[in-house]
Amino acid sequence: MDTRDQFIKEFRGEMLGTINPQSTTDEFFQNQTLRPILKLQNDLFLEVFKNYIAKSKTDFFGFSIEKKLQFIENSIQRDIKFRNSLKGIVIGLLTLEEYSRYILNSSALNKRMMALLIERLKSQVQLFELQL
Known about the structure:
The chain is an all-alpha fold and 132 residues long. It is built from eight helices and no strands. The protein has helices spanning 2-12, 25-40, 42-56, 65-78, 80-91, 96-104, 106-123, 125-131. The longest helix has 18 residues, at 106-123. It starts with a helix and ends with a helix. The mean pLDDT is 90.
C-alpha cells in the first residue's frame, strides 16, 4: 500500500496554494491534496462536463456567458449523480491516509472540492465552445 500512496503523491505533484500557521486542517487538505488532484484531472473533468452537456439536451451553446456559468454551477450543485461521479474522480486519487482524513470531515471537504471544481470549469468555459 505504501507504494501506491507514494506513486499517487509523486504523480499529483506539488502542493498548490499557500499554507500559514493560521490555516485550518481543511485549508491544508484543500491545498495539499484537492488542488493538485483537480489540476491533474482537469482534462478529464472537461471531457466529463462536455459529455454532460451533450446528454443534458439543453441549448448550452446558445446560452449567454452568464447562463453558461450558471448552468455549470447548477449542474454540479443539483445533479447528485453527476456530483457523485465528479467526487469519485477526485477520491480515487487520495492516498489511504488522505482518505482517512477525508472521511472525518467529508461534508465540508466535499463543499470545498465542488466549489473549486465549479470555479475551475467556469474559468475554462470558453473551451467548451472551441472543442465542441
